[in-house]
Amino acid sequence: MKILVTGGLGFIGSHTVVALQQKGHEVYIIDNLSNSSLQVLEGITKITKVTPHFTKLDLRNKESVKNYFVANQDVDGIIHFAASKAVGESVENPLLYYENNLNTLTYILQELQKLPKANFIFSSSCTVYGQADELPITENAPVKPAESPYGNTKQIGEEIIKDATRVNEKLQAIALRYFNPIGAHPSAEIGELPIGVPQNLIPFITQTAVGLRKELSVFGNDYPTKDGTCVRDYIHVMDLAEAHVVAVERLLNNNNKSDYEVFNLGTGKGYSVLEVIQTFEKVTKQKLPYRIAERRPGDVVAAYADTTLANKDLGWTAQLTLADALESAWKWQLKLKNNN
């Protein structure tokens, strides 16, 4: 099938492109390269021996989006990753986030509903739950007021898609709510490429271990958790990529139970920040310098998924461990160091 992946050179997008190509799908990528690199395209090609079709395009330009779909009427499904995702930046520049994450989504859906097939996978987030009342978090947990404009764009994005499927019987969509994606492809040809200071824990760990940063800051050790540090559900990016393939094939094969479905994607296990550090040290034999810092505003205490629905209904289960993910992230960091 012909699958369009927006933001296909980003962290999760690139790994999903690999998984799609390895299942025999023909992949088309749109990316504006604002938070990615053409080198990623080379990495994908090295892994799969197939170069996906790539178009550099800014999805904020409505006319460009329209022209793209006029030229690509035979798209069977879209996996939509393209979005800005830094929580702190979204607080400082909310209008950029609303334009980049919501206008672009609207433009794509407007064109998608004109096509013969309208299958849509949306890259959502567990941020929609905020600090959940109960753990693990099920898909029925209430959506809390967003902690940031970024989180709000995911909530509003889901509402836009749900409303669109309600009035367009041809449009089918699945929203995938990720927990914490980490790791890299085992080949170390592609991985996470944060620009500037990393926003996420794992790149900060690997950059500290390789000597790019003096020490890791652990934000708070007085939370009501087993060791006082925040708890998260860390999912290997390759497991996450596989889930997107399963989800898009669910729509292509008409196996979905309704026109709009939502699934949590996680491992179902929560690990504290200190447990992640200890696992990293054990796997890599690297001693990691860290210090306890003040809590960060907006950090939830604990979040991990109830994966029952994804396991049973979607037919997908995470296979890889935290140790697997950290080992692959370290291998990727060492490759980046050797290339510089």
Number of alpha- plus pi-helical segments: 11
CATH superfamily of the largest domain: NAD(P)-binding Rossmann-like Domain
Question: Terminal Cα separation, in Å?
Answer: 38 Å
- Low-pLDDT windows of residues: none
Descriptive report:
The chain is of the alpha/beta class. The protein folds into two domains: about 1-180 and about 235-265, NAD(P)-binding Rossmann-like Domain (Rossmann fold, 3-Layer(aba) Sandwich); about 200-230 and about 270-310 and about 320-335, UDP-galactose 4-epimerase, domain 1 (Alpha-Beta Complex). It contains eleven helices and 14 strands. The strands form four sheets. It has a seven-stranded parallel β-sheet with strand order 3-2-1-4-5-6-11, sandwiched between helices. A three-stranded mixed β-sheet has the order 12-9-14. The protein has a two-stranded parallel sheet with strand order 7-10. The radius of gyration is 19 Å and the shape is globular. The mean pLDDT is about 95.
Task: Summarize the helices and strands and which ones pair or pack.
Elements lengths: L1 E5 L4 H12 L3 E6 L7 H10 L4 E4 L5 H10 L5 E4 L6 H6 L1 H19 L5 E8 L23 H19 L3 E8 L1 E3 L18 H9 L6 E4 L11 E2 L1 E3 H16 L7 E6 L5 E2 H12 L5 E4 L8 E2 L4 H7 L7 H18 L1
Parallel strand pairs: 1-2, 1-4, 2-3, 4-5, 5-6, 6-11, 7-10, 8-13, 9-14
Antiparallel strand pairs: 9-12
Helix pairs in contact: 1-2, 1-8, 3-5, 5-6, 7-11, 9-11
